[in-house]
Specification:
- The protein has about 425 residues and is of the alpha+beta class.
- It has twelve helices and 17 strands.
- A hairpin with a 2-residue loop joins strand 14 (about 355-360) and strand 15.
């Protein structure tokens, strides 16, 4: 949709001050992919020797850029010539047949020639409307300008260029202190609707100056995905274009050789915190969202069962509309637990809104009052705690409420 949307009430006050990651530079341009006068393409170039890891949507109708990136990551080549990432918004280049593949090839070729990297090391992503051919010539016409304007401090502009229905650019960064020295890490993301990731999320790009071999980088990324980007949902719909790329430039004097040693553990901890920060920003920008809901499930037969329950609650339209209406309708939580497919026992189940005990032993708690529940629901950020009381399985998910704003945004999406 062309008109800008009001900024989400859950948005951070400002875009964070991200550390510059040596070995990566950014540029953006308004190419007119779908709308005129709107920055809609970003390019990131990585120094020679950089490694790249990725996770992608498992949708059966994933886009041409996703398929191309999957093949390149699977190839495992770390090319000494460097790498580049080009992202456009406005058009997802999904369900576009051979034309979509041709567009990816044309863009990769143009970037490779102008940026001095092999086409096999050019990774592209597209986000926006599905089923319309990508006017890739509008992008390739801007490649020379993009390359000439590359700069190490352009990450904030890059975060804005990849937005679609997002109401604010999303970024997170950290300086990770290790016994071998500091590691800098910075990332950007886009996502607001069609959010129920089945790999990573929407579009996410994370950069670190650590030296990390590609297999270890891939292991780190894959190990943290299910706890972060795969633990969020806005509307239960999985995109055709979900992509997450993690690049390590090797420009710091710190090498991550094993994820189990002190340096590796510090790197994992820092990466996890950054990924979770970005994932929660996506939920905060959920289309029409006014509430952020954290769903904590414990006491399940297994972590897998806990995940089933958490996502059943987080994806329930009835739960999400109750949250929007500030209605402490805990019966809808009971419903979502029951339909999840996980093992549950009515008489061992307990439910809490924040610190308020709502239900236990198969019935409403004696201490619970509707007034207390209703007062709690007025908060912008809520915690729902469900203890199945069976074993030790646990999982936490994040979601937002479902409001009239979601309908309005998506009813007019292509207008």
């Amino acid at each position: 949709m062309a008109a800008s949307l009001p900024v989400s009430p859950l948005a951070p006050a400002t875009f964070p001050d991200l550390p510059q990651v040596a070995g990566v530079e950014f540029a953006t341009v308004a190419a007119g992919v779908r709308y005129t006068g709107r920055t809609d393409v970003m390019l990131a170039r990585l120094v020679p020797g950089s490694t790249v890891a990725g996770v992608f949507t498992r949708s059966a109708t994933r886009s041409a850029p996703v398929l191309d990136c999957e093949a390149k990551i699977a190839g495992g080549a770390d090319g000494a010539e460097g790498a580049a990432i080009l992202v456009n918004s406005g058009n997802s280049n999904a369900f576009t047949g051979a034309a979509g593949e041709g567009a990816v090839e044309a863009i990769c070729s143009a970037v490779a020639k102008a940026a001095g990297v092999p086409a096999s090391r050019v990774f592209t992503s597209s986000t926006g409307v599905i089923g319309e051919r990508l006017p890739h010539e509008r992008i390739t016409a801007q490649i020379t300008q993009l390359v000439s304007s590359l700069a190490p401090d352009g990450i904030k502009a890059a975060a804005a260029a990849i937005m679609t229905t997002d109401t604010f650019p999303k970024g997170a960064g950290a300086v990770i202190e290790t016994e071998a020295g500091p590691i800098r890490i910075a990332g950007i993301a886009k996502g607001s609707g069609m959010i129920a990731p089945d790999m990573a999320t929407m579009l996410v790009y994370i950069f670190t100056d650590a030296e990390v071999a590609q297999p270890i980088l891939q292991q780190a990324l894959s190990s943290l995905t299910d706890l972060t980007f795969n633990a969020i949902t806005v509307d239960g719909d999985t995109s055709t274009s979900d992509s997450l790329l993690l690049a390590a430039t090797g420009q710091a004097d710190v090498a991550v050789k094993e994820l189990s040693d002190p340096v590796g553990r510090a790197f994992l901890d820092g990466l996890y915190a950054l990924m979770l920060d970005l994932a929660k920003q996506v939920v905060r920008d959920g289309e029409g969202a006014t509430k952020l809901l954290e769903v904590r499930v414990s006491g399940a037969s297994s972590d897998a069962d806990a995940r089933k329950v958490a996502m059943s609650i987080a994806n329930s339209p009835l739960v999400k509309t109750a949250i929007a209406g500030e209605d402490p309708n805990w019966g809808r939580v009971v419903m979502a637990v029951g339909k999840s497919g996980a093992h549950a026992d009515r008489d061992s189940l307990s439910i809490r809104f924040g610190d308020i005990l709502v239900a236990e032993h198969g019935w409403v708690a004696e201490s619970y009052t509707e007034d207390a529940g209703a007062a709690y629901m007025k908060n912008a950020e809520l915690v729902l705690d469900v203890d199945l009381g069976i074993a030790e399985g646990a999982f936490t998910a994040w979601t937002c409420d479902l409001t009239h704003g979601y309908i309005s945004i998506n009813a007019d999406y292509r207008s």
